[in-house]
Amino acid sequence: MSILTPTHLRCEYLENPPGIDVREPRFSWWIECDDAGRKNVSQKAYQIVVTRGPRQNVWDSGKVRSDETTHIRYEGKPLESTECYDWKVRVWDEKDVSSAWSAPAHWGMGLLRRLEWKANWIGQTLDTPWSETASPPAPILRKVFTLDQEVKRAVIYVSALGVYELHLNGQRIGDHILAPEWTDYTKRVQYQAFDVTEVLQKGENAIGAMLAQGWYSGRIGLAFNQRGGGFRGVYGRLMRFIAQMHIELADGTKQVIATDPTWRYTDEGPIRGADLLDGETYDARREIPGWDRTGFDDSAWKIVHKCSGPTLVFQRNEPIRITRRLEPIALTEPRPGTWVFDLGQNMVGWVRMKLRGKAGTEVRFRFSEVLTEDGTLYRENLRIPPLTPEGAMQEDRYTCKGGGIEIFEPHFTYHGFRYVEVTGLPRRPALDDLTGCVFHSAAEEGGEWETSSDLLNRIMTAIQWTLRGNLHSTPTDCPQRDERLGWMGDIQVFSQTACFQLGMGAFFTKWLRDVRDAQTEDGRFPDFAPQPFDPNMRFSANAGWADAGVIVPWRVYVNYGDKRLIEENFEAGTRWIEFVLRHNPNLLWENHNGSTAFVYGDWLNGDTFVGLTGWPKTGGQVPMEIYATAFFAYSTQTLARMAGVLGKEAEAARYDVLARKIRKAFNAAFVSKTGKIKGDTQAGYALALNFDLLPAKLRAVAARHMVAALKPCKGSMSTGIQSTVRMMLELSRYGESEAAYRLINQTTMPSWGYMVENGGTTVWERWDGWVAGRGFQNPGMNSFNHYAIGAVGEWMWRVITGLNPDEAAPGWKHFFVRPIPGGGLSWARGEYHSIHGPIRVEWRIEKGEFKLDVTVPCNTTATVELPGKGGRAIRIGSGVHHFELAHKGTTNQ
Ligand code: BGC
After folding, report:
1. Which of 88, 36, 38 is nearest to 58 (CA)?
2. Nearest CA to ligand 1 atom 12
3. Are 576 and 519 in contact (CB under 8 A)?
């Protein structure tokens, strides 16, 4: 008899989260079967048991007849702040045979009510000097407290306006980097929770923290002052800190230790300045040994100032943490005493370095993504002087204290780089003195993708690195120059690719709240979120960017089956659509955004490149009103679908009808009887097809026009970031996969292959980031780590490995496997960690046969469509399935 086991238990997407502030958290699990040969396992019922501590029962769901394993809502006794709960689950299979109980999982509750925060926000005194142009020393705060018994359990809830590192009894607590991360601090700030039971002791204990400005009062992208230079203090000026520790002592008594006006602080610590964009300056001579321990004399430190702060919410996404460490692959000395380490991969994070020098020796670290021809760093694309007064300096400085080996590793910054220049060292470093620490919002990893083509594998690897490099609390456009903003248009088009690579549910739950926080009263979604500037002036309501407020929640729903997320975002979506409608009552989105000045359109399309050597004379810009109306129709239709999911019939009907009318207006205004779309651009067809805007009878012919539109561009793309992957998908949908394969296999500009063949280990912002003979593009806009055009990853997953979610059975409860081999590939495989469990697809062409293996997780089903005309569609249940098919076009038939 085979055995089923519920595994991979998650609460609100997270593994054993410590501080949930959702009153009815939701549970998900996978079902694993120990017999690989068993098929069609389904769940007939489940039972969840939740206990407070190990014993006190707070919820026993009983045997619930249901095949659901995702987002099951807690329905027990009211959950209490700061308590810890254990949960386990068992399931019954299709024959009503019960599994064993899962291994227990747990979660901790955070503080559910505002009044439960007894702690005060504390910070520097109001006379602390402030500069708009320089980052100040990092304040260090501390306090000693006494416990008169051993500790049974202790949890601390912490946050800052700024970024913090928490210490207790000489130890750094947790592995979070740049906590509490970025939100709209005028509305809310996140707190983190840590179990500190093991760190506390009977008697005296010391707690302390270091702070830096981070996103709160440090520099953030596009915040320029009148000189065009960096601007600090967008949200506020002085940093603040808050912490509240709940301790249960051995005899059961409870004690709370909280920040209050008796804490002390100093600005005299070793971090002399720290900024996300500019880097960190550390003077080891100023280290304060014992500052985070008892027995330290802090009587000379200042008394903190008590202040106020915004609403505190528990951090919903995975923290930023180090996920990889890279060893350099080369060390050069392009100029005497200038050492350049090559990490072999464009990465995001910082470096750790072992070094030695006399007290006062200053070692300087500078970072870049690429090198110039003479082997020195190319840093102009950081937009540093003379291009702008500031830019992102990405420069760390370390002053040695002397007397032996020292370790430099920053605390409160991050850089985008492959190359590290180190100067000021007294002697030649060794290759392994330096390590690249890669960090990002550590969403669960799971996606693996590989084919027989080395080129395609390198493209996919670059896409994966680009995603990792741009998940820092928000989905950023780039991680290096002075921008690093949650640009909505980029993630809107990249969101499905992201979901294939990482578990994005928690991340998007957090970020979509940032999006809603940034929505204006009149319904405009921002162009990026968080959006700290005046949205009435700029940065809102752009087609394709603002639409992420509708499209991303829908993507998350399709991939994770998360209905509550749809509930949370639906109303905001309606306000957005009504805004566009109000300004465009004739249903063509011509008055593009009501009020703001920026219009991006199908950003970085062929128009950008006309005139460039080798680029065809034709541009590619789809007329703006076509582009924008296409998004209007699609978002409206998506909203109608959301209403349907929520059972809101009136709204579903309203937006369904509206979407139909917009499509009608679109066709009447822009589409000829022969299926030609005004402008005859690749992008126009791609968007119209991908958004299902055309009447059924014109679709195939429009697809042919799209293929024809490749010709004037010598068979290449002239599409921008919003239409490139959509064109790839539509080529494949309409039987033109070979054209798509030609594009993905191309190695001349414009192509993904061109990037990786020219040294790209991440996706570039633009096709012509670097061109032989001309060199680098305009440094004002030339990032080498920008995922938008990496959205082709979606096509690679959907078409090459054939994995497609089913919108009607979200969360991959049912999915499609429809690989379309081509482009000379002899095999491909993909593993995708769905919320129901790992899905595997592997195909190979061998001796004239197409062989396909598909692994379907327990309690899900799939429809397999084998390639070729008239390919059969076969419905399968869980288990490992094998298919074979004679394959035309191979020699060994
Ligand atoms: C960003 C893009 C963004 C764009 C708006 C750029 O500066 O880097 O990725 O979407 O502005 O068009």
Report:
1. 88
2. 600
3. yes
pLDDT for residue 747: 96
Task: Compute the distance between CA of residue 6 and CA of residue 8 in angstroms, rounded to an integer.
Answer: 7
Nearest-atom number in ligand 1 for the CA of 781 is 7
Sign of the Cα torsion 785, 786, 789, 792 reads: positive
CA distance 474 to 527: 13
Q: Which of 483, 625, 730, 736 is catalytic?
A: 483
Kindly report the protein residue whose alpha carbon is nearest to atom 5 of ligand 1. 600
Structure-block tokens of residue 731: 């080529």
**Ligand 1 atom 3: residue of nearest CA:** 487
* DSSP of 160-220: EESEEEEEETTEE----SSTT----TTTEEEEEEEE-TTT--SEEEEEEEEEE-HHHHS--
Residues 6+ apart with CB under 8 A from 264: 141, 142, 143, 298, 301, 302, 303, 304
- Tell me which of 224, 382, 485, 603 to substitute to probe ligand 1's pocket, judged by most ligand atoms within 8 Å of the beta carbon: 603
Q: Which two tokens stand for residue 304?
A: 């903190």
In this structure, the residue with its CA closest to atom 11 of ligand 1 is: 487
**Ligand 1 mean position to 781 CA, how many Å?**
9
> What six digits make up the tokens of 503?
């578990």
**Angstrom distance (rounded) from CA 621 to CA 876:** 44
Cα–Cα dist 342/340, whole Å: 6
Q: Are strands 279-283 and 395-399 parallel, antiparallel or unpaired?
A: parallel
Active site residue 651: no
pLDDT tens readout for residues 441-458: 999 998 899 999 999 999
Query: What single string gives the DSSP state of each residue in 840-875?
Result: EEEEEEETTEEEEEEEE-TT-EEEEE-SSTT--EEE
Residue of 466, 476, 490, 495 to mutate, ligand 1, most atoms within 8 A of C-beta: 490
Our answer on whether the CB atom of 539 is closer than 6 Å to any ligand 1 atom is no
How remote is the CA of residue 73 from the centroid of ligand 1, in Å? 39
Q: How far apart are the first and last CA of the chain?
A: 41
Residue 587 contacts residue 553 (beta carbons within 8 Å)? no
Concerning whether 568 is annotated as a catalytic residue, the answer is: no
Of ligand 1's listed atoms, the one at least distance from the Cα of 478 is 8
Residues of the chain with pLDDT > 70, as a percent, come to 97
- Residue ID of nearest Cα to ligand 1 atom 9: 477
Per-residue pLDDT at 401: 98
Does the beta carbon of 490 lie inside 6 Å of ligand 1? yes
3-class DSSP assignment, residue 741: helix
Question: Tens of pLDDT along 733-762?
Answer: 999 999 999 999 999 999 999 999 999 999
Q: Is pLDDT of 114 > 90?
A: yes
Nearest to 474 by CA among 874, 178, 56: 178
487 lines ligand 1 (CB under 6 A): yes
pLDDT tens digits, one per residue of 465-520: 999 999 999 999 999 999 999 999 999 999 999 999 999 999 999 999 999 999 99
